[in-house]
Amino acid sequence: MGAGGGNMLLDAAQRDELLRHIDAYPADYDEVFDQVGDRLSQNGYATKCDIGALVLWKAMSPISFAKELNGKPDREVQKASREAFAQRPFDIEHDSERLDALALIPGMKHWRNWGALASTLLAAFGPVEFGVFDTNAHSALTHTRKLGICKDIRLPEYFGVLRELRDELRDVRPGVTARDVDKGLFQWGRQEAT
Fold this sequence. Notes:
By secondary structure, this protein is an all-alpha fold.
């Protein structure tokens, strides 16, 4: 939608509020995320080192996941992530296939919050199309009812909503990415929680 299309998710006040929150995101917070993203884009796959850096960036500490991941050869991580990153086009069906591929990373599917890490990997690899699934961003979409999005949104649909919001925001801010939208939602949800 966006670009003058109908059925917009945001009214003008919501759009301006989301843009304000995008601008409020701390400038230096994503240094590790961006460095890993550059490697993922250049290589076309993730390594155990990349995943470790993103787990640190996301402030996650899944010990059993780390033990299982570290006990497997890096080539298994590279194979699963290469398949996920190679999927085209960017839509809900292919996003589900991407997530299925990432679930093959050793230890990933056994981890309770594996979707948070899977979305982090995809967002680092392709920030134009993906954002990080986070409770604060989810809260901005659902619990506050600011945007009236379904409470039980699944990860592929979350990516779709981010893309719709990105496209709407591009009417007033060309070049905005799905990751930018996610950062704004993160800030908005964090504000609502305090």
